[in-house]
Amino acid sequence: MYDLIIHNGQIVSTSHVSSPDTWIGIQDEKIVCIQAGPLPHDASKRYIDAKGAYITPGGIDTHVHLQQLQVAPGDDTGDTFESGTRSAIAGGTTTIIAFANQQRHDKSLYPLVEEYHRRASKDGTWCDYGFHVILTNPTKAILDEEIPVLFEKEGISSIKVYMTYEARRVGDRDMLEIMLRTRKLGMTLMIHAENDDMVQLVIDHLRDNDLTEPHHHAIARTPLAEAEATNRAICLSNLVSSPILIVHVSSSAAMSRIRTAQNDLQPIFAETCPQYLLMLADAMRSSGHGGCGCSHSAEEKAEDDGFEGAKLICSPPLRESKDDLDAVWKGMINGTVTTFSSDHCPSAFDHPKGKKKGLESGKADFTKVPNGLPGVETRLPLLMTYGVEKERITVQRFVEVTSTQPAHLYGLQHRKGSIAPGMDADIVIWFPNGTIQEEISNDKLHHSIDYTPFEGFQATNWPR
Amino acid sequence: MYDLIIHNGQIVSTSHVSSPDTWIGIQDEKIVCIQAGPLPHDASKRYIDAKGAYITPGGIDTHVHLQQLQVAPGDDTGDTFESGTRSAIAGGTTTIIAFANQQRHDKSLYPLVEEYHRRASKDGTWCDYGFHVILTNPTKAILDEEIPVLFEKEGISSIKVYMTYEARRVGDRDMLEIMLRTRKLGMTLMIHAENDDMVQLVIDHLRDNDLTEPHHHAIARTPLAEAEATNRAICLSNLVSSPILIVHVSSSAAMSRIRTAQNDLQPIFAETCPQYLLMLADAMRSSGHGGCGCSHSAEEKAEDDGFEGAKLICSPPLRESKDDLDAVWKGMINGTVTTFSSDHCPSAFDHPKGKKKGLESGKADFTKVPNGLPGVETRLPLLMTYGVEKERITVQRFVEVTSTQPAHLYGLQHRKGSIAPGMDADIVIWFPNGTIQEEISNDKLHHSIDYTPFEGFQATNWPR
Amino acid sequence: MYDLIIHNGQIVSTSHVSSPDTWIGIQDEKIVCIQAGPLPHDASKRYIDAKGAYITPGGIDTHVHLQQLQVAPGDDTGDTFESGTRSAIAGGTTTIIAFANQQRHDKSLYPLVEEYHRRASKDGTWCDYGFHVILTNPTKAILDEEIPVLFEKEGISSIKVYMTYEARRVGDRDMLEIMLRTRKLGMTLMIHAENDDMVQLVIDHLRDNDLTEPHHHAIARTPLAEAEATNRAICLSNLVSSPILIVHVSSSAAMSRIRTAQNDLQPIFAETCPQYLLMLADAMRSSGHGGCGCSHSAEEKAEDDGFEGAKLICSPPLRESKDDLDAVWKGMINGTVTTFSSDHCPSAFDHPKGKKKGLESGKADFTKVPNGLPGVETRLPLLMTYGVEKERITVQRFVEVTSTQPAHLYGLQHRKGSIAPGMDADIVIWFPNGTIQEEISNDKLHHSIDYTPFEGFQATNWPR
Amino acid sequence: MYDLIIHNGQIVSTSHVSSPDTWIGIQDEKIVCIQAGPLPHDASKRYIDAKGAYITPGGIDTHVHLQQLQVAPGDDTGDTFESGTRSAIAGGTTTIIAFANQQRHDKSLYPLVEEYHRRASKDGTWCDYGFHVILTNPTKAILDEEIPVLFEKEGISSIKVYMTYEARRVGDRDMLEIMLRTRKLGMTLMIHAENDDMVQLVIDHLRDNDLTEPHHHAIARTPLAEAEATNRAICLSNLVSSPILIVHVSSSAAMSRIRTAQNDLQPIFAETCPQYLLMLADAMRSSGHGGCGCSHSAEEKAEDDGFEGAKLICSPPLRESKDDLDAVWKGMINGTVTTFSSDHCPSAFDHPKGKKKGLESGKADFTKVPNGLPGVETRLPLLMTYGVEKERITVQRFVEVTSTQPAHLYGLQHRKGSIAPGMDADIVIWFPNGTIQEEISNDKLHHSIDYTPFEGFQATNWPR
C-alpha cells in the first residue's frame, strides 16, 4: 500500500508536536496516511525508523542565487544548480527558489527564463526548484504582458527588486507600477531595501580616505540606509495596498518599522538569514571565522592573506552593534520574521581562472569584492542549533519560518510546507539534541565553494 | 478498526487546510488515523459524511462562570453545569473551564474545589470541563501548600485574580506573591484588569448625580481604568518574569500595551470575547439588541421594561468608541489576542424567585444589576460568521484562538486543540458559508437563560 | 533722549508677560530702555499709549514667495515686493524672507541673487526682507564656491530644496551634499517634503479617470507622500548630522515623525501655516470660503464659476481628515512646531492678461491651477484669534513661533525676535480680546491679489 | 534713582541673551529698568560690574527638605532653615520651597503649618522660602476646608503625595480626591512615583538573603517600580484632567512615559535632580565619591567605615544603567523636564547624638539608612558646569529649568523667574567659563552636613 513508512517519529507542525508513536505512510512521493501507532505491515515496504526524532516538513529556501547571468564574463564562479541543490538537500532543504535576473538592456523576460531553465536542467538538480524574476527595467510590455504569462504558465510567483546597486536599483515610480501588478496577480514582491544614495555617499567618503578594508563595508551600508528604504517601501506598499516582503532584514530600525506595519494590519512580510542572527561586523576585521570563538595559531594568522574578512561581505552587511543582532532575534521570536532563508550567494575565492576580484591590488577592497555568502546547507542546522536547542524558539516556530510560511508566501502551500495527507513527501528527520556535537567545517559541506562563513560554529543537530 | 469515520472534510489546523478528500478514523474517542482518501471499508463502522465541510478541533471555552458560590443567597440564578455544558456543546465547544471562587473568609481551597466538583457532577455535563481557582485571599498556606497540591493532584492549571470589585480585588503585593508561585509551577495566571479606585470614583460621582441608567456603566468603567490596570499587571509580571493572561481585553489602550509587551518578548497573553468585537455601549441605551440593526415596533418599545440595556451590562463594559472595537479586531487579526472566550456569566432576568436584582426601584440601576452576559453557545458561530466569513480572519486563525492556543495556555495541548492522531476526538464540522442564513434567537439556544445579548445577530454558519 | 516711547503695555516674551505699566524707550530704530513705570518726560518725544495692550516683537514671516522667476512667461501675476511687504506690515509682520529660485539650467547663483535684489529694491519695500536660495541643480561649484560667499557676503542664511515637482525636485544624493555644506556653514536647510513619484502615480490615475476637480488635489497629494518624504529627509539628515527644517507640515504622520526625531535630540525643525490649522479639503469641493461657516445665497452659488475651490489649492494640500488638522494643532501646542509662516504664494485669479491658468477648458483642473495661497497679512491675526484668544496656545507661545524662533532659525536673533534693549524696534501692539469682532474680507487687505482664502474667518484681534 | 546698578552683563532669559552692555537698575529690591548702555550716573548708587558675565534670574529650588517633623526623635539631624538657606544662597538659589509634612495621625494641617513657620523664622533665613504640604491622610475636612484656606491665606500653592513608603503612601482613590481639589484651586500636585509593593517585595527578598549593602538599594527600587507608578499617576491625572508634577524622575521608562503624555497635551510635568544626571548606582558600591573618578589611596580605603556608599542612598536611587542617566539628560535637553531641583534631604552622618541610624550593626544596611542627599548649594554650579559649559544645554535652557519654569509651576511668575522690570531683584552673576577650575569639596560648602555626594566633581563656574 505504501512505498515508504516512517515510524515512531514526532511530526512537528507550526502548532503541534505529535505523539512519539506516529507512523507516516508515503506513496508515489506523497504523504498518504498519518496514524497513531503502526500502519499495517507489508514486507515489500521501505521503512525508516524515526524513533525519538522530530519530523519536520522539508526546508524551503526561497533566497538562493545560482548561476546567475552576470555583467562581467568571469563572474560565474559559484555554485551551479547541480552543486547548489546538492548542498541544499544535504542540509535538509528540499525546495529552493533561485533568481532569474533581468539586465537593464533585456527587453523581454522570456529568453531569460528559458535560459535559466536550461541552466537548471543541464546537470540535473537534487531537489525541487523554482524561480523569482529580478526586474531592473520594468517596461510596460513586461509588466502588462509578460508577467501575467510567466505567473500563469511558468508558475513564477514572485518578483524581486533592488533599491540599491547602481546596475539594479529601480525608482519609486517603478516600484509602484510593479506593486500594482503583483497585487493584482497575487504574486509576492521581494524588496532589497537599502537607500543607494546614502550608501554611495559613505562609500565615496571612505574611498576618498582610502578606508576600504573589509570591515568598512559595515560602515558604508549603515543601518540608517536600510531603515530609510524599508520605510519607503512600506509607504509605497501602503499607497497601493500591495503585499511586500522585505528580504534579509538585518537591523533593529528596519525590524521595528516592519513590526509597526504588521501591527497595523499592513501586508508587510519580513525575511532574515542566519548571518544576521549569528555574526557581527567585527568578524570582518580579524582573520574571520565569524565570531565563533575558535582560536587561531600565530602561524595561521601569518598565513592569512587578508581575505578572511572579505569572505564575510554581504549586503546588508553584518552589523556593528549587538543591538541589531538582538533585534533580529527578537523579530525571529515575536513573529515579525515571516521567512528564514540563506541568501546563498556564493563566490569561490580561489577561482580556477585566478584570484578573486577585489584582490588584484593584493589588498582586499570592500568596494570591489563580490557581495554574498554561501549558506544553503547550513541554514537549517544553524537555526536548529542556535534557535531551537538553545531554547530561543520552539521547534514549531522553526517549522513555521523554514517551511510552512515560505510555502504560503510563494504559493506552494497546497503541496509543501506541512506534513499532512496529500502533501509532497518532503520530510526531514532530526534526532534529538545532543546526539551530535560538532563544529561546522567546509570539508563536510556539499557546495562547490572553498569556504563557509560559519566555519567553526556549533551544530548540535543535523538533518538525516 | 475504527468506531467512527469522518470522510471527505477539510481538516483545519493553525497553518494548514487539508485536501478535501481527507478521512479521519476514530477509535475509543481518540483520533487514530488521518488519510488522504478512503480508509479501509468496514461495515460495522459509523460514518459521517463531511463532504465540502471544514473540520476544526473542538472549541475550548476557558472563561465560563457556572453555579458559582455567591455572597448573597438569591444569586444562583444562572446556568447549572448541566445547562451550561449543554449550551456549550450545541455551539461547538467541547471543553469548558469554569471557576471555583474563593470568598475572602475561606481559609482553605480544598472544600471549595470539592464543592465545585460536586456541583459539576450532580446532573452530569455534556462536555469536558475543568476549573480555575479564583483567589481573593492568597494566604501563605494556600500559596505554598494548597496550590501545588491542586495543580498536581487536581489538574487545576490556572488561577484568576481580580484588580477590581471591592469583594474580590487583590493588592499588588498579593499579585506578585501569586505570580511567583504560578511561574514556578507553570500555571496560567488570569487577571481581570480594571483599576477599582478609578471606577469607584466615577460611580460615586454618577450616583451622586443620579446617573445610573445602564449606559452609564460604560462611563463608569472607563477604558483608562483598564489601560492603567493592564499596564500595572504587565509591570508586576515583568518584575518577577511571570507569564500572565489579561482576560477580556476590550479597549485600544490595553490591547496596544499588551502588544508592546509581546513585541518585547514578555510573556503576556490576551483574551477577548465576542461582545467586545460586535457591540458598542450605545446598545445599552436603547431597547437593546446589541446594535444588530433589527427594527422594533413602537409596541415593542412601549412594552420595554427598561431592562433591555441592563442585559448588556458586563465588565469591562461595551465600549463607547468604535476605535476600541476596531482595536480589538486588530488584536484578533494581528496576533495579539491569544485566546477567544465567551466570559459566559449568565443571569436570568425573570427569575423564579422574583424579578432581577437591580429592578427593585422599577428602574434599572447599573450599580445594582449583576454584571455578565450569557454566550457560551454563540461564541464560535459569531466568530465564524463575523470573523471568517466576513474575511477578517482566516479559518486557521479561528482554530488558533478558539482551540489550539487555549489548549496550550491551560496545559491541554497533549490531548486537545489539534486534529491529529493520538488526540481526543473533539471535532466540529462546519458546512460552507452561505448554507445557513439566519438570525440568532434565544429560542434556539440551549442555556437556561431567558435572553441572549446577540438576539438578531447573523449566523451564517453553525456547527453540526 | 528717546525718539519714541511706548507706554503702559505688557511686553510679551516666550516665557514672560511684563507688568502693565511697562515703558519702552526707542532711539534710532533700536529699543534702548525698558522700565517699570514712566521714563523721564521730554516734550519732543513721540508717544504711543499701549495701555491694556500686549506688545509683541514684530512678526517674522520666513516663507514668502514674491515675484519669483518662473518657467512660463505669464506666471508673474502675484504680489510684487512692494505690495507683498505692504500687506505684511499691515498684518504685523516686520520682516519677511523671500525666495530666489535657481532654474535647472542656471549655472551660477550670483546673477540670480542680483536680479532678486533688483526686484526687491525697484519700488521699495515696507518692511525688512531677506532671501533664501532655492537649489534645483546644486553643482559642485555652487556648493563649494558660491554658497559660502552668499552666506558670508550677502547674509543669505538658508537654502531650500524640493523633494517634489518635476522641475524642482532634487535627489537624495544632492540633498546629502547640500546638507554637508549647510551644516558646515551653520545655514538652515528648508525642505519641501513630498514624495513626487507617489504623487505623480495618483495624479496619473486621477487624470486617466478624468477626476481633476480641485478637491481631487487632496487625494493626489496624500499624507502618505508627505510622511514618506519627511522620514527620508530625517534619515538623510541623521546620516550627516545636519539640521533641517521641514516646511509647511500638514499631516499627523509627518508631525509625529518629526516629534520622534526631536525627542531623540536630532536637529529637526518644523514649520506650519495657517491653512493647515484652519481648513480641510472639503472646502475645495464647495464654493469655497474655507469652512468658515458663512452661508451663501443660491444666487451666489449659481454665479460660482467653479474656481472657488481652485483658489484653495496649495501643496501640501488642505487635508481630508480632521485628525490631520488636530495633529497640526497638537504640534503647535506641544512644541513640535518651531516656526509659523504664511507660505504666501499668491496668484491673482482675474489676471489682466486673461483668466487664470487652468481655466482654459472652462473647468478648473487641479493639475493645471498654480499652487499657493496668499496669506502674509492674515497670518498673525489668525493665530492670535484662533490660537491665543480661543485659549489653545498662550501669547508667549505665539511670540515664540511667529518671531523669536524664526529669528533664531535664520540667524537674526541678535537683532530681531525679542523685545529687549539693543534690539531692532520691530514692535506690534495688540489690544485686548474682544475689542474687535469682525470677519476677514479681502477688501480690507493690502496685497494685490483678488481673494483671500480666509474670507469670512473671524479676526477678534488685529495689530495696530 | 536706583539703589543698585549692575552694569555690562548679559541678561539671560529662556529665549534671549542680551547685548553685553546691558545695565540693570534696581530699587527697593525690585528690578526697575533695563537699558542698552549706561543708566544715568548718580554718585550715591551701589554698582556691580558684571562685564563679560551672564546674569540669570535667581535660582528657585522647589524640592528642599529642612527640619521636617519626623517619626523618631533622633531624626532631626540635618540642616535647619538657617543653614539650609545659607547654603542655598551660596549656590545661587534665592528662593526655596520646603515641605510641611502631615503625619498619618494629624487631623489638621493648621498647627503643622504654624509649626513650620515657627521653625523657619526662629533663626532667620538667608533667602526667600515657601512651603508645600505633604498629605498622608487627606480627610474630607482637610481637602474641602483647610486646603483652600492654606492656598488663599498662606500662599501654599502645592501639595505633595507619596506613592511609596509605608508611613506615607496614599492610595489611588486618595490621589484622585486630591487631584480634584488641586485642579479646582490651580495648585500643583507633586507626586513621588514608585510602586511600594514592588519595592517591598524586592527588599524582603534581599533581606531574606542578607543582601543589604548600600548598592542593593538600586536593585530594590527598580526602574520598573518608578515606571509603573508614573504611568498610574498619569492615568489618574488623565481621568480627572488634573495637572501633576512627577518629581525626581530618574529613569528612561518614566521619562519616556511622561514625554508621551506631554506630546498628547496632557498636563504632566517632570522634575529631575543633579544626582540623576551625574551618578550611577555603581558609586554606592565603592568608597563612594560618586564616580567622579578621583583616586583613593589604599590607606583611605582601609579607613573606609563602609558608609561612603550609604551616603549616596536616595529614592529613587542612583540607577544601574547608563541608559537611564542618558535618558534623564535627554529629557533635560528635549524639554520633557520642566524643573530642576536638588531634592536636598540632608542627614549628617556623624551626628552629635551618635553614629547614624543604620550603622548600629557596624555594617551599612540600606533598609535602615535614611534616604536623601544634601545638594541645595551644588545644584546650579553642577548644571552650569555639566550642562551649559559642556554644551549639552544652552544657558537659556538653564534659566528655564532652574528659575523661570519653577516660578510658573508654583505661582511665583509675577515676582520671580525672569529678569524684567517690575520683578524681584533676585539675580545671579556667572563669570565666563574657564575662570574657575576647581573640584567641589564639602569644606567650601555652607550647609551643616558633613559630606557632599558631589565631592570631587568639577565646578567650572560658581555664582558670584
TrEMBL record, chains A, B, C, D:
Top-level class of the enzyme under EC nomenclature: hydrolase
Keyword Metal-binding: yes
Keyword list, A-Z: Hydrolase, Metal-binding
Cofactor(s) demanded: Zn(2+)
InterPro entries named among the record's database cross-references: Amidohydro-rel (IPR006680), Hydantoinase/dihydroPyrase (IPR011778), Metal-dep_hydrolase_composite (IPR011059), Metal_Hydrolase (IPR032466), Metallo-dep_Hydrolases_sf (IPR050378)
Catalytic activity: 5,6-dihydrouracil + H2O = 3-(carbamoylamino)propanoate + H(+)
SUPFAM superfamilies: Composite domain of metallo-dependent hydrolases, Metallo-dependent hydrolases
Post-translational modification: Carbamylation allows a single lysine to coordinate two divalent metal cations.
Domain Amidohydrolase-related: residue ranges: 54-444
Molecular functions per Gene Ontology: dihydropyrimidinase activity; metal ion binding
Cellular component GO terms held in the UniProt record: cytoplasm
A Pfam family: Amidohydro_1
Residues where N6-carboxylysine is found: K160
EC number(s) reported in the record: 3.5.2.2
Similarity remark: Belongs to the metallo-dependent hydrolases superfamily. Hydantoinase/dihydropyrimidinase family.
Name this protein carries in UniProt: dihydropyrimidinase
Species the sequence originates in: Kwoniella newhampshirensis
Lineage: Eukaryota, Fungi, Dikarya, Basidiomycota, Agaricomycotina
